[in-house]
Known about the structure:
By secondary structure, the protein is an alpha/beta fold. It has two domains: about 1-40; about 60-215 and about 235-270 and about 280-290, Vaccinia Virus protein VP39 (Rossmann fold), CATH 3.40.50. About 35% of the residues lie in helices and about 25% in strands. The chain has nine helices and 13 strands. Strands 4-3-2-5-6-13-10 form a seven-stranded mixed β-sheet, with helices on both faces. A four-stranded mixed β-sheet has the order 1-8-9-7. Helix 3 runs parallel beside helix 7 and helix 5 crosses helix 6. The protein is globular and about 50 Å long.
Amino acid sequence: MLKQYFQITKHKLIGAIFTSKVSSYLSPLIELLVSLRFVNVWEGVYSCWEDAPQDDNVLESNISINKVTNQALKNLAAYNSGNNFPLASSTQDYILSLAGGMLLSSSEDNLCILDFGGGMGTSYFPLISSLPDPKKVEFHIVELKTICDLAQKILGDFSQLHFYEKLPNLSKPVHIIHAGSSIQYVSNWKGLLAEFANYRPRILILEDILAGEIPSFITTQNFYGKKIRSHFLNINELIEEVQALDYELIYKSLCTQNFLGKVGGPLPMKNFSPQYQLDYGSHLIFKSIQR
């Protein structure tokens, strides 16, 4: 009974901290709670998606939508100011910008990109800020309805930026599919990869994915005071799954995460047994095999 009361009190405190209007100023407190393991970023190891606890509509909560919106407004202001170079150079390992620039330079056609879980142009603005001719990019983003609706209002002036609530049927060939920190939140990630492959993009980029030399497992992530399910993947299993779709791996690197305003440290997973602890996520790039 005492343990149950402690757990309830702890989760109420976590929720209060993350939903507070001054939550952005509470990072030192949150960092302390994480270091003391009073608060865990991820909790539990599950073999079945449905067994992991999850709250409803987590990614459409006010705090989550506000963060996406604020980032979009910040990117838009930087782009409109004409101060594009710092925007592009300050991004943390945005490999889409480099891959897009190289692919565009070797083609006479405009570049068509499909970005799964791309927020309100999180990767779009660094990309067009890096290119000599941004109009040669057609950019399609798959996102939640709330984000799509807001994006139409905020970014409606960008005629080459399009938003969808599900994977679209596109008349033009897709050159690059990009999924940044997104497929780990999809129950059937293998089915999603197969849907990506149906577009036959020349390049497939899986950026900031929770994959490494660990067993694959499902866990619950504390997401701004709410719970959301997430995959951690064995990287060899992931690579083999993509290779079976007629793609070959051409780039692999570790990536650092941004937790509590700090960039570069290992993932806070000390509450897990050693076999499940992942220090860093991964960036993977695959290219289509022409048969």
